[in-house]
Design goal:
The structure holds two protein chains of two kinds.
Chain A (H helix, E strand, L loop, with lengths): L5 E4 L1 H15 L9 E6 L3 H14 L7 E4 L30 E9 L3 H11 L6 E9 L11 E5 L7 E5 L8 E5 L11
Parallel strand pairs in A: 2-3, 2-4, 4-5, 5-6
Antiparallel strand pairs in A: 1-8, 7-8
Helix pairs in contact in A: 1-2
Chain B lengths: L33 H19 L12 E6 L5 H12 L3 E6 L11 H10 L4 E6 L4 H6 L5 E7 L5 H15 L6 E5 L6 H12 L3 E5 L15 E3 L2 H4 L5 E4 L15 H8 L3 H6 L5 E3 L12 H4 L6 H20 L7
Parallel strand pairs in B: 1-2, 1-3, 3-4, 5-6, 5-8, 6-7, 8-9
Helix pairs in contact in B: 1-5, 1-11, 2-11, 5-6, 5-11
Classes of the chains: A alpha/beta, B alpha/beta.
Amino acid sequence: MGSREVCVRDEGETAALVAEMARRIWAGAEDAPPVRLVGVRARGVPLAERLAVEAARLGFEGVAVGAVDITLYRDDLDQARRWPVLRGTDIPFDVDGADVVLVDDVLFTGRTIRAAINAVCDLGRPSRIRLAVLVDRGGRELPIQPDVVGLALETDLRDRVQVRLRPFDPGDEIARIPAPPGPERSPS
Amino acid sequence: MTTASLADPAPADSGPAPFAWTRKHLLGLEDLSREEITAVLDTAESFSEVSKRSRKKVPALQGRVVFNLFFENSTRTRTSFSLAAKRLSADVQDFSASVSSISKGETFIDTAKNIEAMGCDVMVVRHPTPGAPHLLSQHVQSSIINAGDGAHEHPTQGLLDLMTIRRAKGGFEGLTVALIGDIAHSRVARSNIWGLLKLGAKVILCGPPTLVPRGMERLGCEVAYRLDDVLHRCDVINVLRIQFERQQRGLFPSVGEYSQFYMMTQERVKKAKDDLLILAPGPINRGVELTPEVADGKHSAILDQVSNGLAVRMAVLYLLSGKMPAGE
């Protein structure tokens, strides 16, 4: 993204945010039913996997991680200029009765999470769904709020927020890409 | 960033470079590139997961209308397309020529335009005349899917055969695939030939000389007239149906003689490679193209083909819907 990109959290700081998210997800969960993580493709999946690694450090070994592709549930498919490529939903556990934590990198309008909730509920009836995001950048267009947030970030609606996570990316980083000067544009 | 709007220009961070599907119609595999065929197969893999759910439906094509225009008998292909459309939440309407105004003299194009006037996004067309779906694509706004045009092409059957082979064998490079039987009357054979050659497989066409058209070698195929000459080299055998309904001229002496030379039997399976994969587009004539033991045996992928056909048709409906005028 060139020189206009602003680093908000670097490698070490991003990793610390992930570790703190895991502590909050599994706080007081010793005697509770197992937490199942469902990452929203694309970067929700490596984040969910990282959270599972952190969970093991907290004594919660072998946390199940699934991936949900929300493409088929988007509310803007009809407006697509470029029809999205499917990457597939892959949830290796029974959703019925599960304690699910949806995981995504950036929470913005909430439309992705609305789609992800519908996608998960088409697979069964979870006992509970919570939402964990690394960055909450505001700008909600639906009544959706996260349960666990790594970083609440003030942004202009036209900014882009870029999360990079190993092994999906070469390193960990949270960056903000300020909007180019120009006419106002709605976020979605 | 998954919250980016789809209307934005391609975000720079959307993972592996997405293949841009640009086609509005699926008329044949002859037109498609290797990359396009691979894109359909990859998309179909994603959709096969939907069919395994207890709730086998996704909302992607909600509000879209798919018409099945069948000017020739078909049960399984039409059913497969209907179910595929329903799994994507589209509305499906069947239109059969036998009960239609065609029998009252309306032309093919007029019929299609009347259907379009009711509001239609995709027409799935089967017609006995080669090129009929191509003609329609020039006269209507809907996306056209060729569901079989005479002896020309049956692209979704070709794609489901390719998907079945790819799943069983992992790929196409170095693979030898034989199409057995009635090559001349088979649209399945043509779609298979185009798809397999583009993906890098070696193709052998094997049947009675009267049922293998001249000049197929020029496409890059090997031609053989005796199955036993080539059987040991095959990784995949696709057993084409003898089309009794297209066969009034007696192009081989008898069914018994055909079976003797070309039927897949247990004895022939024993002479073939251990991991031979046997496909048949169906409906199969047990005891003509293959014996019941082979059809139901461990080498047979006939029922996998049916399941994969549903996934392939969902993928095609999904990909073509992205290029509809409404989606621009």
